[in-house]
Automatic annotation (TrEMBL), chains A, D:
Assembly and oligomerization: Heterotetramer of two alpha and two epsilon subunits. The ACDS complex is made up of alpha, epsilon, beta, gamma and delta subunits with a probable stoichiometry of (alpha(2)epsilon(2))(4)-beta(8)-(gamma(1)delta(1))(8).
Keywords: Methanogenesis
Organism from which the protein derives: Methanolobus profundi
GO BP terms: methanogenesis, from acetate
Record function comment: Part of a complex that catalyzes the reversible cleavage of acetyl-CoA, allowing growth on acetate as sole source of carbon and energy. The alpha-epsilon subcomponent functions as a carbon monoxide dehydrogenase. The precise role of the epsilon subunit is unclear; it may have a stabilizing role within the alpha(2)epsilon(2) component and/or be involved in electron transfer to FAD during a potential FAD-mediated CO oxidation.
Pfam families listed in its UniProt record: CO_dh
Family under the similarity heading: Belongs to the CdhB family.
Gene3D superfamilies, alphabetized: TPP-binding domain
Protein known as: Acetyl-CoA decarbonylase/synthase complex subunit epsilon
Pathway the protein takes part in: One-carbon metabolism; methanogenesis from acetate
InterPro entries to which the protein is assigned, alphabetical: CdhB (IPR003704), DHS-like_NAD/FAD-binding_dom (IPR029035)
Gene name per UniProt: cdhB
Phylogenetic classification of the source organism: Archaea, Methanobacteriati, Methanobacteriota, Stenosarchaea group, Methanomicrobia
Automatic annotation (TrEMBL), chains B, C:
Annotated catalysed reactions: CO + 2 oxidized [2Fe-2S]-[ferredoxin] + H2O = 2 reduced [2Fe-2S]-[ferredoxin] + CO2 + 2 H(+)
Enzyme class: oxidoreductase
Record remark: domains: Cluster B is an all-cysteinyl-liganded 4Fe-4S cluster; cluster C is a mixed Ni-Fe-S cluster which is the active site of CO oxidation. Cluster D is also an all-cysteinyl-liganded 4Fe-4S cluster that bridges the two subunits of the CODH dimer. Contains two additional 4Fe-4S clusters, dubbed E and F, that probably transport electrons from ferredoxin to the B cluster.
Binding-site list for CO: H113
Subunit composition and interactions: Heterotetramer of two alpha and two epsilon subunits. The ACDS complex is made up of alpha, epsilon, beta, gamma and delta subunits with a probable stoichiometry of (alpha(2)epsilon(2))(4)-beta(8)-(gamma(1)delta(1))(8).
Gene name, Swiss-Prot/TrEMBL: cdhA
PROSITE patterns to which the protein is assigned, alphabetical: 4FE4S_FER_1, 4FE4S_FER_2
Protein name: Acetyl-CoA decarbonylase/synthase complex subunit alpha
EC number, UniProt record: 1.2.7.4
Length: 170, 803, 803, 170
């Protein structure tokens, strides 16, 4: 079992509310239990073929995907439910009760983030943290202090392992 | 005028004198009347003057807050954690505080520009007098921002003082609202943000008009000369004089001294940041050749200093690294400060002789000097550079580590990740160190272009490894080849150019203006700018550059060894590439939009901001891109564009500005305007979709640019062109057709001819539109009609029948 | 003047007109010359104008930085953690950033005051015209700050506009330096801080001169009337109109309407914060009686609203809680905003009729309205209050919880400590809750005076317990008795008063001026103010009050039922108690010091800031106390005092201003000045020991006050008096003789007569001084000589023989 | 043994560097080992007679005392080495290599804080943390995030117990 909760060093502090470090099995179960989860993948994904695979595997478990940046280039035609959206727009719409989601099926309750620029996601999560009730789960290689739950800072290989374990628990 | 005595005096002592009196209530209106100009409803608007317009914009483009910090530490009631939108001790909630934070950034930027403007205006009036005419080229509307905002049509330098008075008064009013216990509503802080942004463009315009009029800068010159750019273009064998900053007031004295003393070939004069741009604009009108080289942006400052090449550094103001003196000291480079905004604690030598100052600095009695007397400065800087060059050579100053040392330093690394954590871009420094142990320094070389040269890595390293020096040393070959060409800033778009191109813009047949402005905080290196500009230019967009982006664009060459400045012409026409100039020249970009409304569409401009903004919002397909936006000035510029309805995309770092203005395309009620012909409501496309937002990568940016150039006023040809680019760019860079392309289709003639049939099929199959296949016409489906004579407006009072 | 047309016109069309032209270079000097006034070296100084003076002060009083946050989040290069004085991405280090943070606070405060000044000046000029004479009482030096700084001697409202132009230009220059990449040295940010503080006093002075001249306010009136003050003095049975803020422009229209419509007895008009003070100054000159009551400070705002008593709330600007509208809405109280700085997102009804507005607000169509037309405002506010009083009574609005509910709410408390953690003063709320379960609410009652009413406890409570309401309900008896008397603000100290008292101050026979200024963020409740003032008044200090402190002082009575305002006379004489007025009246305190230099010592004042400041630094024993300082205005005011060499003590919360200026008494080299008679160096006592510092408790404050009134110019009688108070206060409040008393002794005649022998023994025994016991004279020991004719100065150029 | 390291809740964050929670026995030993310790007591001490006693007991172990605010009123004539000083001045002087201490014997290496207003001490400690190399030990009832080492947030009675334990370890 990979312990993803250890190194939670952050770059700068933001406030008192800080993400809870989470282990992959717990994260996996949490996603499974979610009524309307959404996997949000970013363009950093494209830098690692293996990460792309993990994202597709998660998506194939029936989790709809929002592809931000140009990450969709690696996800089209992969037989998964994926749509492009700008992450700043997404962050906003997620907090809007009138938004019916990427597929018109209603709002999401759990949002999972993978493959984003750390400093950029930190900001998007800050908006979600402060202005919505959403559960935000960061399964990134870095500890995302503004998420609800987050992996700690991990080495790339440990990160991939952790994602595997998460997938097992879906 | 200038010989009139001040004070109280009786008129009958004077004869045949013209006296200009400002500040009388109604003064602007009266002056305008005399000149046959109609003044709109809001000359010199106060904070509430354009609030209704702001609230209209903000109801469609809602503020999105992403706090950088959950806490407020403004006053000593606090510090308060506002997490979860809680209220602080003064009662302010998170939203209002974040809006206030944004306001503070915006007015800081506006102050930087306008304080620069005030300084240079004082300076130029001292030399040329208040009556010196404003001359910026073949235009009647010389100051579009100024005139639209204040109602003043400035003709002389003296006229600009009243404009500055207004800007300063308003910025002070806005700064006051940052105080504890002022505005309580986020929406009204947002209105203040837009007010601050608008003021910024006036301040910038004043700055550039003043310097263009006096300093021989290009005046709407489509043939402005090409200028050498890049760290590689500096000949380090000569004495090197490095100038950093934004305000060229003092630097011109140095340039004149060099020229007058035939030192042009004996000294390398290089500039960093916008001072560099304006140095190369100095005295180049009418075919003059640039007398300085551009080294690059803020991102090159530390690298340039650390190279040890400069023999003397002169700084003025803005975007100058705070550690210049400390860094220079280590390499025995004297630093001269020349502006009250940056004095570095150095002794004020303004009243001393050049000889004494040179003596003291060259003997390291002081590490630098403050010189506010520009005659003295003009002599000291170059003479000292010549002297220091020899002294520093004799001293054998060593700057960067050797290759052997690189390996040793790599070995010191304990892979603790502190550098990567603190690096603003989280660059993979550890991997470079790892490879460095095996004498493979290629990974350091890869870091060079994506590194913004901030030096946080050095600060973070617990082992005191000079990471930045290592990157620079490993990249010395690349750096040597870092030379390109930038077109010198040409100044504003002239009235005749507007007359020629205005109609294409409004109808959309020129697909849009892409204005690439601002700083060097790129998410993925400088090359992205080249990629964006080249793609959009090929597609016939007008690409306008300014400031640091204008510089960085000049550093890259295509396969033919050409920079884009060489490849594309520089007129205000489709497919042209324009460099307006330095940071303050950004005002010409908004000025262009105002001019289209005023000159092409004949809208009254004086004190008529709302109508002008409304016109631009609905008709001019322009998108600003501040891809490397880092500064408060950048957000100020963006906010000024926003009040005119011009959308701006910033790079991912821009999310740290804390707030975006994003519309909801799915909220149909938000995408309606009036038809000014009868005041009826009409639906419009959801474009621009935002006023300020971020994009993650240039690949994402491309379709955003194309899409957000769509405007209600597009004719069918225009819409077809824009839609084609949107679809093509989406397919090229995102690998798929955009989800929402059909929403912009009003009629089959909006569809690209080549793909029309195929697209009609999709419309029928996927979206249930009815198609008359015989005539290949759309029968039903679109939510909007195509009606080129419609007059979209957001402002009820501008509709027929309204007062 | 006011009927002159604007624009260009030829002179011969006009006759017998006086025209004032500013802005010509050298204008101030020429005008002054005509008036026979000598102008000093620095009229309208720029940022560097007084830098040498600043650096002198700062070399003795070194900046002490105590960051509130280790991080900088100004630009999007960051956010950067500067912990341990590391550099951020722009190269700034922690010290420079903290100095910049301080600068930002100071200019925010200065902007608040000067933007207020600009607003009221526009307003009064609209009504009274530019030629309206400035009249502030029997003084020739009407604008000491303005004249010392700008060299302008303003005579009319119009003259003040040029002063404001200068202030705004300079604040804009300073705000520009807050931008990324400007100043890099902490010491020069500090100089900018002092510049900002100086500007603040000019801005305040303009504000108060303008309103005093036009609004019938007391003019150096030692018999200004006494005004009712306190939450308890409001008769809640009448319609209650509550006004909150600082800028009385609009409120005067309300007051006139009430008066003109004979509603004085039918409406309770109460004010919170400085608007309240200025309401009670309105039309009270020449024996007029105050037409409004003062409720109290910012600390009472939330409590007053939550009481449910107000029927209408009118806010203007500054120190207005950001949640006024939200809180008022809950209790069906309409809110009217009247100033562009605070608009709360409310609809702008400025152009609508009073009738329509009253209708809409009384039917709750909108929760409030923005009314910038003061004629409309004047009618709406009182008429709406009358209407709402009935409506709200009929609605049976219930505000505070009942006693029964108090117990229930106490039971909800889970003792989690969230409230105490977030309470700015960490008050013992949990203990009160615990007692409340047993129906003992006395602990809540104890909290009332020490609570600053910020409401953070409510926000923090996870159980949504309305803690503040509970405190208020439990304290309703105390609150009902909260009534006192405050002397209406008298305006500046007149020239004749200075002539009478100046010598006593300079020689020290009046032991000092204690200026108790500012806000209500007290560490231990409001009563401490009373304690301090009473003690110092008994000891013959001149005590000067202003703003919130002036209000709070009026709330306490001695055993005879008298407030201090009743007990002590209000002249500028030893042992007198003066209320200068509202926040902007703080300029009269520095003005007084400047007047002593100008009038008593005949120093040239115009544009001669450094010499004036030098005089004050060495000769005027004044100490400012901002015991409850919370705001940016407070630190601005303090910094303005500091540039004049006047030390300021703030309460412990003031440590959150991030920086103090503290001298090192043990560093002997720092405590030397020149003797202007011959330029020789002379040692001085280490007093003031600081320019800005904090104290922990009033007990600690007392000896600090006495000690820091000591000045080099004290004669023996003066030094003896000051030393006596220092020793006595130290013994009374700290229980011991101060360690350093002997350091202030120059000769035996400096020692208190009654204790002289005893003290001489200590000097001999503990400090090794040689005493001639026969003559009871000190033979050796002191480091300073007693020489009343010495002329201490920090400025070399002011010494004889220097140019 | 009292565990004083548990509740380290803070009011607002300040930066990445945060005090290490410390137990009384460790704190006590640390003080004992210090070459030049200084106990700095504040005026909040006066609100609790028992706290005064503890301070005096510590002082009697030979540790010089700086009494800030008016705390000296409870400490004079108690046969301990105590001097009044303003805490803001003290915070400054402590960082000055040229300051020879309250007694002229040289600079201090370890400074112990007791009986201060939380928000006020937080600021003084911020200056010490960022600009000096001093060891700052807070033995207050509240967690002082800007100290080098600090007790956590404690109930008053536990605080007294902890001080006793600290004293035992001196």
């Amino acid at each position: 079992m990979v312990d993803t909760t250890k190194n939670t060093l952050i770059y700068t502090t933001s406030g008192r509310k800080v993400a809870k470090p989470v282990n992959p099995n717990v994260a996996g179960k949490m996603i499974s239990k979610a009524k309307r989860p959404l996997l949000v993948v970013g363009a950093e994904l494209l830098k690692d073929e293996k990460l792309i695979e993990k994202a597709i595997t998660i998506a194939k478990k029936g989790i709809p995907v929002a592809a931000t940046g140009h990450s969709i280039t690696a996800l089209v035609d992969k037989d998964i439910d994926v749509k492009y959206i700008n992450i700043h727009s997404l962050g906003t719409f997620l907090g809007d009760k009138n938004w019916t989601g990427l597929d018109g099926q209603g709002s999401y309750d759990t949002v999972i983030f993978l493959g984003h620029k750390k400093y950029y996601l930190d900001q998007v999560l800050s908006g979600i943290k402060n202005f919505t009730d959403l559960k935000a789960l960061a399964i990134e290689r870095h500890f995302m202090q503004n998420a609800t739950l987050s992996f700690g800072n991990l080495k790339p290989e440990v990160h991939l392992e952790a994602l595997d374990e998460l997938i097992e628990n879906l | 005028m200038s010989d009139i005595e001040t004070g109280k005096f009786s008129i009958d002592e004077l004869e045949n004198v013209q006296i200009t009196i400002g500040k009388i209530v109604g003064a602007i209106e009266k002056k305008a009347k005399e000149e046959g100009v109609e003044v709109g409803p809001t000359p010199k608007p106060g904070i509430s003057g354009l609030r209704d317009w702001d609230h209209k914009l903000l109801s469609r483009y809602q503020p999105v807050y992403t706090p950088v910090c959950d806490q407020c530490c403004y006053c000593t009631f606090g510090k308060c954690d506002l997490g979860g939108n809680k209220e602080g001790a003064c009662g302010i909630n998170m939203e209002a505080h974040q809006a206030r934070e944004t306001l503070l950034r915006v007015i800081t930027g506006a102050a930087a520009h306008s304080a620069h403007g005030r300084h240079i205006l004082h300076h130029l009036i001292d030399i040329y007098g208040r009556d010196k005419a404003i001359d910026v080229g073949p235009s009647n509307l010389v100051a579009p921002n100024t005139q639209a905002v204040t109602g003043i049509k400035p003709e002389t330098l003296g006229d600009l003082e009243e404009v500055m008075d207004y800007v300063e008064e308003q910025i002070n009013q806005l700064l006051a609202t940052v105080h504890a216990g002022q505005e309580g509503a986020a929406i009204d802080f947002e209105s203040k943000v837009l007010h601050g942004g608008m003021l910024d463009h006036v301040g910038m315009e004043v700055s550039d008009l003043a310097q263009m009029s006096c300093l021989g800068m290009p005046k709407s010159d489509t043939e402005a000369p090409l200028v050498e750019i890049g760290m590689g273009c500096i000949d380090s064998k000569k004495p090197v004089l490095l100038v950093i900053g934004h305000n060229v007031s003092g630097v011109t004295y140095i340039m004149d001294y060099i020229h007058d003393h035939n030192l042009d070939d004996k000294i390398e004069l290089g500039g960093l940041c916008c001072t560099a741009i304006d140095m190369t604009r100095y005295k180049v009108e009418n075919g003059g050749q640039p007398r300085a080289k551009v080294i690059g942006t803020l991102a090159k400052e530390l690298k340039m200093i650390r190279s040890g090449v400069p023999d003397v550094i002169v700084v003025d103001e803005q975007c100058v690294r705070a550690d210049v003196l400390e860094e220079a000291k280590k390499l025995s480079i004297p630093v001269i400060t020349t502006n009250e905004k940056i004095m570095y604690g150095l002794p004020n030598r303004s009243k001393d002789s050049a000889k004494d100052i040179i003596e003291d600095l060259s003997t390291f009695k002081d590490p630098g000097a403050l010189i506010l007397d520009y005659d003295t400065l003009g002599e000291v800087a170059p003479e000292l550079a010549i002297k220091m060059s020899k002294i520093r050579e004799d001293m054998g100053i060593k700057a960067l580590p050797s290759d052997e040392e690189l390996q040793g330093l790599s070995e010191k690394c304990v892979q603790c990740a502190a550098c990567e954590m603190d690096c603003p871009a989280n660059l993979p420094i550890m991997a470079a160190m790892k490879a460095g142990v095996d004498k493979d320094f290629s990974k350091f070389e890869e870091l060079h272009d994506v590194c913004i040269g901030c030096g946080r890595c050095d600060q973070a390293c617990p082992k005191d490894i000079p990471v930045l020096d290592m990157i620079e040393q490993a990249s010395r070959k690349i750096i040597r080849e870092e030379k390109g060409l930038m077109r010198a800033g040409r100044g504003q778009i002239s009235d005749p150019e507007i007359r020629e191109e205005g109609v294409n813009l409004v109808l959309g047949t020129t697909p849009g203006i892409i204005a690439m402005v601002g700083c060097s905080n790129y998410p993925n290196g400088t090359r992205d700018l080249y990629t964006v500009a080249d793609e959009m230019l090929k597609r016939n967009y007008i690409v306008v550059m300014s400031g640091c982006s204008a510089m960085d664009l000049g550093m890259y060459k295509n396969e033919d060894g050409q920079t884009l400045y060489e490849k594309y012409p520089a007129k205000f026409l489709a497919g042209n590439l324009i460099n307006v100039g330095s940071c303050v020249s950004n005002s010409h970009i908004t000025g262009t939009a105002i001019k289209v409304a005023a000159i092409f569409a004949q809208r009254n401009v004086s004190g008529n901001y709302e109508e002008i903004a409304d016109y631009i919002t609905n008709r001019i397909g322009a998108v600003g891109v501040a891809w490397g936006a880092y500064s408060q000035k950048a957000i100020a510029i963006g906010s000024g564009c926003n009040r005119l309805g011009i959308p701006v995309v910033v790079g991912p770092h821009g999310s740290k500005y804390r707030r975006a203005l994003i519309g909801k395309p799915y909220d149909e009620a938000a995408w309606k305007v009036y038809d000014a012909r009868d005041g009826s409501e009409m639906p419009i496309p959801s474009s621009p979709e935002f006023l300020l937002t971020t994009a993650e990568s240039v690949e994402e940016l491309f379709p955003m640019l194309a899409k957000n150039c769509i405007r209600p006023s597009d004719n069918n040809m225009g819409r077809m062109i824009k839609l084609t680019h949107y679809m093509e760019l989406s397919q090229k860079y995102l690998g798929h057709m955009p989800e929402d392309w059909y929403k912009f289709v009003r009629t089959e003639t909006d569809l690209p001819l080549a793909k029309r049939e195929q697209l009609l099929k999709i419309l029928e199959a996927d979206h249930g539109w009815e198609i008359d296949w015989k005539r290949k016409k759309i029968i039903s489906g679109p939510t909007m009609k195509s009606d080129v004579s419609a007059q979209p407006t957001n402002v009820k009072r501008l509709c027929k029948g309204e007062c």
